[in-house]
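Field reference: sequence -> structure
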Amino acid sequence: MLHDVLANALSVISNAENASKSIVLVKPASKLARDVFELLKKEGYIVGYEYVDDRKGGLFKVELKGNINKIGVIKPRFPVKLEDYEKFEKRYLPAKDFGRIIVSTNQKLMTHIEAKEKKLGGVLIAYVY
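Structure field:
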């Protein structure tokens, strides 16, 4: 039984990166996974993604660049204030200014860097480097 669609999607991407695959199928599809893939594409971690309707919940065809060393969800999904970002950067990222933490804010999903610039708090979703 599948409990966390995003955790499954990021695990599939991590395993495909470790196996040096260039294309991976991630299923089932979800809006949260789509938004995370959009951020990964914008930040340059993946080439792109495409939604495919298979009439069983859909799936994403993700084209990988080979830039991801580690990717995963943050559980439990910690609430974070503006002054707490540095603490979570030290916990989830290997070095300063290396990697991204994906944060769900009241405006949209964004990286921790964007959230700090806009002075927004939120909920931690995932990390990638």
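Note: The two ends are 29 Å apart (CA to CA).
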